[in-house]
Design a protein that fits this description.
binds S-adenosylmethionine; alpha/beta; two-stranded antiparallel sheet; Rossmann fold; 7 helices; 257 residues; 9 strands; seven-stranded mixed β-sheet
Length: 257
């Protein structure tokens, strides 16, 4: 049985999905998120109804990633630099875009936020940028993983990015190689770091989620992978099938090349 149909349409990309056919107007809601470290208040606009690509939720991975960004934004000993301050940041599959919106508050010099090129998703992110007064450093654009990334780097003065953010994307197994190809194109060689935070939403597919990192380390991509976080925060949806401890834990990894 197909992994995406085994439990209804959980995380399936509908076969007939066509963003052009969807209306550009939809009901939205605004959620105020207060970061747990420095208490930044961030207003996040999302679609009020379920979107078939899951960009309507603020996923646990993005909340744990927000903590990680705040915790690593200080200059440290041994010439360690703040992770975000004065750095360029790119986010893939941003949905609510919490990490990107926070990076603007944390002093990033440039933030490029991307999501699937569906005007409804992109308009929500643009609205969030506007109401958080972050338009001076943030650009928002549609981007399909695996496509040419020149438009993204051109928004950063033609340069690759210091930090690339992937929050809750590895469940999409068929897209691993495309996502990694995009990371490879946009991440600065040597000093750049990609932050990959996620939850195993389907405990019976943990190995398939983790294949992302095997492929990342393969000769084809040549990334160095390091585990940097693991935190139990509780499951997003209690009623979903499978072990709650697994579904409620967020994992964080870095990729470098
Ligand atoms: C589970 S949501 C995660 C949203 C957000 N990053 C978070 O952590 O709250 C997955 C996101 O990936 C995006 N996405 C799915 N397939 C994509 C593709 N092929 N190219 C670009 N974005 C895609 C969806 O639109 C959605 O915003």
């Amino acid at each position: 049985m197909d992994e995406n149909t085994e439990f209804g349409d959980l995380f399936a990309l509908p076969q007939d999905y066509d963003s052009d056919k969807e209306s550009s107007v939809d009901t939205t809601k605004t959620t105020r998120f207060t970061t747990s470290r420095n208490q930044w208040a961030i207003d996040i606009v999302t679609l009020a109804k379920k979107h078939s690509l899951w960009g309507h939720e603020i996923w646990n991975a993005s909340k744990v990633l927000a903590d990680y960004l705040e915790d690593h934004n200080k200059d440290g000993d041994n010439n360690e630099q703040a992770l975000i301050r004065n750095k360029s940041v790119l986010e893939f599959g941003a949905g609510g875009a919490l990490p990107s919106l926070l990076c603007a508050k944390l002093g990033a010099k440039k933030v490029v936020v991307t999501d699937y090129p569906d005007i409804k998703l992109i308009n929500c992110i643009k609205k969030s940028v506007e109401i958080n007064n972050s338009g001076n450093v943030v650009d928002v654009t549609g981007y399909l993983w695996g496509r040419d990334s020149q438009e993204l780097t051109s928004l950063n003065g033609g340069e690759q990015f210091d930090v690339v953010i992937l929050s809750d994307l590895v469940f999409n197994h068929s897209e691993h190689k495309k996502l990694l190809a995009s990371c490879k194109q946009v991440l600065k060689k040597g000093t750049g770091v990609a932050l990959v935070f996620f939850t195993h939403h389907r405990p019976w597919l943990v190995d398939k989620d983790m294949d992302f990192f095997k492929v990342a380390e393969s000769e084809e991509f040549g990334f160095t992978v390091e585990e940097v976080a693991s935190e139990y925060v509780g499951p997003m949806f209690k009623e979903d099938p499978g072990d709650e401890t697994i579904r409620g834990t967020v994992h964080g990894y870095t990729l470098r090349h």
